[in-house]
Every structure is written in C-alpha cells, then in structure tokens.
Amino acid sequence: MNIIPAIDIIDKKVVRLERGEFDKVKIYSENPVLIAKKWVDLGAKLLHIVDLEGARLGKPVNTDVINEIIMNVRVPVELGGGLRKKEHIDTAFNIGVRFVILGTSGINDEELCKFLVKRFGERIIFSVDVKAGKVAVEGWKKLAEQDALEYIKKVEGLGAKRIIYTDISRDGMMTGPNLETLKSILQATLLKVTVSGGISNIEHIRALKELEKDGLDGVIVGKALYEGELDLKNALEEAL
To answer: Looking at domain 2-239, which CATH architecture does it have?
Structure first.
C-alpha cells in the first residue's frame, strides 16, 4: 500500500484547507519545492499535488511552481486541480507529470474523458470527491446529481483503472477515514482505489492496511504530516 504525501498549492504556497473550504486555509510553507524534497527524502515514492486555485477557477494556475517541483524531485507526481481541457492535460504531461487527476471533467465532459483514457491509459486517474453522498465538482463548490457508486460505475465504463476517493466531510479534519463507506466502495468496484480524507495517525494507517486485500492501493496524507501528528517514515513502514 502506497503512502502519498499531499502538496496543496495556493499562490505558490503549500496550504491545507478544512473540508475544501477556501476561507479555512492554513499556510504551511512558502517553498513547495523544499516540502516536496522533504517528503521524498523521507521515503515517499509518489507525490500528490493539487493546484487549488486551478480547481476553483477551472484552469491551471500554478503550473510554474509544479514544474519546478518536478524538476527537483526523483519520484513521480500525480496532479489535479483545474485540468478540464485537452490542452491542460497536454501541458501537465509535457512538464513531466506522471498521472493526471480528473474531477469536474469526469462529470461534465464524457467524450474528453474517453479520449484521454484511450490515449493515456493508466496515467488518467478519476477523483471521486463525495459530500452528502453526492460527487462534488468545481473545486468542491457544487454537487453533481450522481452518487459515488453511480459515478464509479461510469468511470469504470470509460476504461479507468484507478480512482481517488475523498470523503470531503473529513478532509483536513484529522478525524479518521470512514472505513465502512470505504469498504462498500471497495466491494463495489474492481478499480484500484486510493483513499483521502481524515487520516491522521498510525492507527488509521494500520486499519487501512487491512483493506489492501480488498483493492485499496494507496493512502493520501496531508494535514497530519504538516501538523506533526503522523510520521511519514513510520507510516511508510506500517504500509509495507
């Protein structure tokens, strides 16, 4: 099971939000490259980067700093946030992003998603960001009509291989993952699933490790790392 540090970016700074709310932002560093190097030096094999301004505005905003991160680390990067057009995805891959995460476009542009999955295969990941049982879009500001399982079946049909499942109500709150809901997601799909939201201590990592046999292949950790509640080295060892 992979432990994936999150680097959320606003105004070229590393931040974390609570439940995706932009008025509840905390700045952790003004140097995302140093943060990326720190997590890699501690053993991270993959970095999860989100252009939060891009997610809010519907177009990439922090491409330059993301490019700088990629040029300075030796591990793959997965990127999400505002990647809603073919040219956005092309630019991401051209600067060295390994995996692109689609959120809003997964709901709103099925033809684009079909094209991207056919062209890039496993390098396209779909985010399933859930609030009140519905999939959230446009920087988590709006709720789509589809519930999580409906949407997962849809992206399976598009040929997806991996999803990132986020419980928005727990994101940035360090209250622990919703294990029961996660179990139901894993039982309903053959897709590889990465989970995000609420993971804050080594006990949560141990509990999630038990779900690896059911298809859980990764855990994204953010605020707990930045607040010092979770040690990345310990988490990586526990996940082996």
So the answer is: Alpha-Beta Barrel (3.20)
